[in-house]
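Lay summary. Proteins are chains of building blocks that fold into shapes, and those shapes determine what they do. In this project we predict the shape from the chain. Here is one chain we studied, written as its sequence of building blocks.
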Amino acid sequence: MNEIICPNCKKAFKVDEAGFADILKQVRDHQFEEELTSRLALAEKEKQSAVELAEANIKNSLQESLSKKDNEIAELKAKSDAKLAKELAQKDIEIARMNSKIQHAETKKNLEVAEAIQDIEKERNDLANDLKIKEIEKESLAHQIKEEFANKLIVKNEIIKLKDEEIDRLKDFKQKLSTKMVGETLEQHCEVEFNKLRATGFQHAHFEKDNDAKGGSKGDFIYKETDEEGNEIISIMFEMKNENDETATKKKNEDFFAKLDKDRKDKGCEYAVLVSLLESDNEFYNTGIVDVSHRYEKMYVVRPQFFITIITLLRNAAMNSMEYKAELNLMRNQNIDITKFEEKVNAFKEGFAYNYDLASRKFNTAIDEIDKTISHLQKTKEALLSSENNLRLANNKADDLTIKKLTHGNPTMRAKFNETNEKTK
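And here is the predicted shape, written in a compact code that computers can read:
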């Protein structure tokens, strides 16, 4: 503890170290502030005195320098007045000359600018005219293209409309027909196709409906042709079969083979042909003329487009066969030179090949026409192309026809050939 005596009342009192330190700090701070304030006031007075003295000195020094400079300026002005006047006059002349050049340049610049503006305006007008012409040409071309496209679109729509109408007509036609009417329509089609060529190609032929049902059944049509002497050249029993797409029970071609073969034999016909639209998706029957003689003797199945073709092929083969038969009879009756027989056989081969060539060309023509029709006839075209294979097989059979095969099982002809061979030796 520290004891402190109050300077006013002279009383002593004790304080601890913390209190004493705080009082001591207060006393020191108060003294420091008083001393600092006093010193700052003294320093301010000294600074003010120094500033005033410095200002006085600077003012006096500047006054002396200014007076000296004024004197120097007066001297220099007196010396340079004449020279300055001369230089000023020269400068005025130079300024006038420069102003003249500037004026001339300004005039020239204005003229060049006017000319440039005129050229630019002319080029702008030319470009505007060209642009206008191009716009007119573009509009005209766009109108022309639009008109052409519209015309093509009209034609296209018309073609589509015609095709749609034809498809709708066929669909409506098929839907309206009963199974019996479809068959009768196919018969009418074949009859019309035959009648188109009856007067020119089949003058001596008979193509009539089979109305004789004595044997218990009958076919649809019988084709028969005789020569001028009444000898039968060929006879064909035809059966026409079709059914509506809406028919619930679908028939097959082979369902009618047995009946057709029976009708052929009952009516004494040489060939049997089934003209059929059955099994339209069966590629076997879509190849053209289909030979089913492995099932039934001398029987063929054809699509309607091959109706005339099968008659022509069988008829031509029969005509050539008739010539061959007539030649054999003539040989027996007149005992002609047997060596010419081979030539006749070769003539038969050439004739058959000629007919094959004609048929092939007709097929090509038919193919070209089919290519122009609607897409659903594509299978018919493929059938025409495939039919050439059957013709090739027929031609190969004709090429394979030899004297040896012709005389096989014929003792009379074999004897004639043996006699000829011995004579030639």
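What the prediction tells us: The chain is about 70% helix and 10% strand.
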